[in-house]
Amino acid sequence: RVLSSDSGGPLEENFSLALRPRTIEECVGQDNVREKLKIAVQAAAQRGEPLEHILFYGPPGLGKTTLANIIANEMNSAIRVSSGPALTKQGDVMGMLTNVNEGDILFIDEIHRLSAPVEEFIYPAMEDFKVDFTVESGMHAKTINFPLKRFTLIGATTRAGLLSAPLRGRFGMLLHLEYYSDEQLTQIVARSARLLGLDSDADSLGLIASRSRGTPRIANRLLKRVRDYAQVKGSGRLTVDIVERALKMEQIDELGLDELDRSFMRALVNVYDGGPAGIDAIAATLGEERDTLEDVVEPYLLQVGFVRRTKRGREITKAACDHLGLPYKGADKE
Ligand code: ADP
């Protein structure tokens, strides 16, 4: 068990591993997804067949990796983990595929970032459980046809639309993960606090949950920050006052928005007169990656109605301006 504080890297990973639910039952929320998975797992087990290929999509930190591990657990299968950017050559995939046993799970995170040649290489593996491997090149090129064991590919991506249509079409189940309610996040934080042996006042965990942007990963991360704060500035016990002070220090506001969320909205208002503005322009203004804005920042701002997406670009809403205390100039826009 890792209880030390850190801001990333392997310790952070261990921390989130320790808090990760292991079974479908232990998992909170995502009822629809869990129900579909339970049925699929049971049906496949009864038939003694591997599961269909599954694609999870939705914003980061909502449980895609967690669910992939849970499925492996429930199917009693081994899981091999990789990611789109890590599989650059056909040889990388070949190594993985030829090592799988019947029923193994292959988890590919950020699957939308597979290169085109690797993607095409995977098609026959997904469809017919075989690969055509080309050795050497030019005149001496030889294609070797290699049969594979029946495996299950689980892909994860932040947006299903980022996948090419042929790849998307090869998944039997496309499962969308949604933001969690405050109540569900409270359950998750309470479970984490219990696992970490934390002592807490009644409302303190709900307060953390309500500031977590609907995201379990953020909820666990904030819990960790608050735990540190309580230990150093208080008695170690989590109270509403401690949570408020700790989150203020983290620059998390009453709605759970952080500095990046706010600078995104401020840029829209101050630089682009409320919008519409293109995502590339906003990214350039903020000096941020476009991907980060599209995957992490925007989905939640859209969800809470602070940003609108139109054909001409992103626009700020009145609710956002009210929240930020900025004048709203968009009343005349449609
Ligand atoms: P993703 O792969 O979608 O980015 P993860 O699966 O890594 O997200 O989840 C991030 C963390 O959030 C996990 O370590 C886990 O502790 C927690 N978590 C995610 N989903 C749930 C859930 N449904 N119930 C409880 N904890 C969860």
TrEMBL record:
Per the UniProt record, one Pfam family is AAA_lid_4
Might you give the EC number(s) for this enzyme?
3.6.4.-
Q: Where is this region: Small ATPAse domain (RuvB-S)?
A: 181-251
Residues involved in DNA binding: 290, 309, 314
Chain ranges of the AAA+ ATPase domain: 50-181
Q: Which reaction does it catalyse?
A: ATP + H2O = ADP + phosphate + H(+)
The listed locations are: Cytoplasm
Keywords of the record, alphabetical order, are: ATP-binding, Cytoplasm, DNA damage, DNA recombination, DNA repair, DNA-binding, Helicase, Hydrolase, Nucleotide-binding
Positions annotated to bind Mg(2+): 65
Binding-site list for ATP = 19-20, 61, 64-66, 127-129, 170, 180, 217
Q: What are the start and end residues of every segment in region (Head domain (RuvB-H))?
A: 254-334
- GO MF annotation, one: four-way junction DNA binding
GO-annotated biological processes: DNA recombination; DNA repair
Cite the Gene3D superfamilies for this sequence. Answer: 1.10.8.60, P-loop containing nucleotide triphosphate hydrolases, Winged helix-like DNA-binding domain superfamily/Winged helix DNA-binding domain
Domain of life, source organism: Bacteria
Q: What is known of its domains?
A: Has 3 domains, the large (RuvB-L) and small ATPase (RuvB-S) domains and the C-terminal head (RuvB-H) domain. The head domain binds DNA, while the ATPase domains jointly bind ATP, ADP or are empty depending on the state of the subunit in the translocation cycle. During a single DNA translocation step the structure of each domain remains the same, but their relative positions change.
Which family does the entry's similarity section mention? Belongs to the RuvB family.
Q: How does it assemble?
A: Homohexamer. Forms an RuvA(8)-RuvB(12)-Holliday junction (HJ) complex. HJ DNA is sandwiched between 2 RuvA tetramers; dsDNA enters through RuvA and exits via RuvB. An RuvB hexamer assembles on each DNA strand where it exits the tetramer. Each RuvB hexamer is contacted by two RuvA subunits (via domain III) on 2 adjacent RuvB subunits; this complex drives branch migration. In the full resolvosome a probable DNA-RuvA(4)-RuvB(12)-RuvC(2) complex forms which resolves the HJ.
Q: What is this protein called?
A: Holliday junction branch migration complex subunit RuvB
